[in-house]
Amino acid sequence: MSKRLGILLSGRGSNFIAIADSVAAGRLDVEIAVVISNRADAPGLLAAHSRGLNAVLLPSRGMEREAYDRQLAAEIRKNNVDLICLAGYLRLLSPWFIREFPMRILNIHPSLLPAFPGLDAQRQALEHGVKFSGCTVHYVDEGLDSGPIIQQAVVPVLEGDTLEALSARILREEHRIYSEAIGLLTGGKRILGSGSV
Can you tell me whether residue 44 is helix, strand or coil? Predict the structure, then answer.
């Protein structure tokens, strides 16, 4: 039986769309059980609706973090989710939530962790003058982008790179390795060739 994913997003949901495309094309043998957004105006929520997926709005405005996360956890349990994937989810998860789902929450971050955790990772990479950046799929723990690393992809930083150009190249790799990492963890895909670190 296919593993069931719960995808959390707050914005455009490009990583969600890449995962959904991998599922639709048969490259990834999982089921998207629910897509949850904390924002009604998230384009990713509309994309989930348009694909006929179970798309749920749980507004978070004005709510204390753990109180909101208890609602979120109830929705995840209701949908029998095996693996939670953050896809541009712009809320910090409470320690309570992370403890409720140990080693079951994934995130993708636009740097080669442990370098450049937190916000504006691509800008940090350019400002530090590194020659290589990339992206990392990792488990979520109670630290900032500090959970165990599952997979990484390296992206060269080119001479004269702009923030937009570097970000776009990293995003292409994010779309590739997030599905690969999910496949590795769920047994839903066999990885051959490059991409794994």
Answer: helix
Summarize pLDDT for 104-114 with one digit per residue, the tens: 999 999 999 99
Q: Is the peptide bond before 114 cis (omega within 30 degrees of 0)?
A: yes
CA gap 165, 133 in Å, rounded: 12
Identity of residue 92: L
First vs last C-alpha separation in the chain: 28
Phi, psi of 41 (to 5 degrees): -90, 10
Which active-site residues does the annotation give?
109
- Give every strand in the sheet of 132-139, ordered side by side: 55-57, 30-37, 3-9, 83-86, 105-109, 132-139, 149-156
- Is-contact 93 104, C-beta < 8 A? no
- Model-level pTM? 0.92
- Phi first, then psi, for residue 37 (nearest 5°) are -125, 145
Complete domains list, the chain, with CATH: 3-186 (3.40.50.170)
Cα 91-50-178 angle, rounded to 5 deg: 50
pLDDT in tens, 28-50: 999 999 999 999 999 999 999 99
Contact 147, 106 (CB under 8 A): no
